[in-house]
Write a structure and sequence with these properties.
By secondary structure, the chain is of the alpha/beta class. It has 2 domains: 2-84, Methyltransferase, Methionine Synthase (B12-binding Domains), Chain A, domain 1; 92-209, Rossmann fold (3-Layer(aba) Sandwich). 51% of the residues lie in helices and 10% in strands. The chain has helices at 2-12, 16-28, 33-53, 59-84, 105-116, 130-140, 158-166, 200-209, and strands at 92-97, 120-123, 144-148, 173-177, 195-196. α1 (2-12) packs antiparallel against α2 (16-28). The longest helix is centred in the first third of the chain and has 26 residues, at 59-84. The chain is globular. The chain starts with a helix and ends in an 11-residue tail after the last helix. It binds cobalamin.
């Protein structure tokens, strides 16, 4: 947690270079992405949430921290791909936040993990209305579509998104993630094919199991 707090303060100052040095030090210690995302960057952002909630920082500082974190994630992915040179596995995945949802950093981490496993990823970021999702999915024909939401009342979008996506001709697997999945049960919004992940550890386990394709057994 110490590193996460240290990172939170660098993010709040918008200090891209020192924030990167902190992450690079972890990389040089051979820490894997799951550790860097789950144990350093995510708790840093959650600490910023706590500081915001308790009026210890301004909205401007929170936004600066978010923008700096976004930079850090992009740089981390670039660095990782440069070092690893993973070959593509022929699988495709789309990543998007449901309509009105602005919290996208966790989704971005998930997309980067897929990337490390050799998936071709299309990362659409926040707030993508269903009609555009369907259009893009019809064109791309992804094996997987990942949805993210963080605000409880955005859960109402899950059912229509999942239904529309699962009935597309190529029948993609829908994976749902976001901070509320650790606290609540959302299975009722999906079908028996829908996958709900509480965190990136779940994602990594799923990716390990589906290295060689996404032929699916119900409940897997
Ligand atoms: C940064 C931030 C913002 C930024 C978001 C910018 C961005 N680009 O993401 C901005 C300023 C836009 C924002 C806005 C708002 N926010 Co805000 N925000 C946060 C903050 C501080 C950090 C979010 C974050 O990045 N966390 C780190 C990421 C990595 O964690 P994560 O999203 O949980 O992701 C993890 C997992 O869930 C998983 N995951 C996530 N998505 C996916 C997807 C898939 C497919 C998979 C497999 C996994 C996965 O992977 C990650 C690692 O495990 C949180 C505090 C917190 N506790 O999270 C509040 C927080 C989420 N926000 C909150 C609120 C209230 C709001 C606003 C309503 C404020 C307002 N009045 O305007 C708006 C709503 C905007 C909207 N319509 O969505 C509240 C929500 C409380 C509640 N009861 O619902 C929080 C908890 C702050 C608080 N403590 O009160 N926010």
């Amino acid at each position: 947690m110490e590193k996460a707090i240290e990172l939170a303060h660098l993010l709040l100052k918008g200090n891209q270079d020192d924030a990167w040095v902190l992450i690079e030090e972890e990389l040089n210690l051979s820490k894997e992405s799951l550790y860097i995302y789950e144990k350093i960057i995510t708790p840093a952002m959650r600490h910023i949430g706590y500081l915001w909630e308790t009026n210890k920082i301004t909205v401007a500082e929170e936004h600066l921290a978010t923008a700096t974190c976004d930079y850090l994630l992009a740089r981390y992915n670039w660095e990782k791909r440069r070092k690893q040179q993973t070959s593509l596995n022929g699988k495709k995945a789309m990543f998007l936040c449901v309509e009105s949802e602005q919290h996208y950093l966790g989704l971005k981490m998930a997309s980067q993990l897929f990337n490390e496993y050799g998936w071709e990823t299309k990362y659409h970021g926040p707030n993508l209305p269903l009609e555009y999702v369907v259009k893009a999915a019809k064109e791309l024909k992804p094996d997987v579509v990942c949805l993210s939401f963080s605000i409880l009342y955005h859960a109402e979008h899950l059912s229509p998104y999942i239904k529309a996506l699962e009935k597309l001709p190529n029948q993609p697997i829908v994976i749902v993630g976001g901070r509320l999945l650790e606290k609540y049960e959302f299975h009722r919004y999906g079908s028996e094919r829908t996958v709900f992940h509480k965190n990136l550890e779940d994602v990594k386990k799923w990716l390990d199991r589906h290295q060689h394709g996404v032929k699916f057994n119900v409940g897997s």
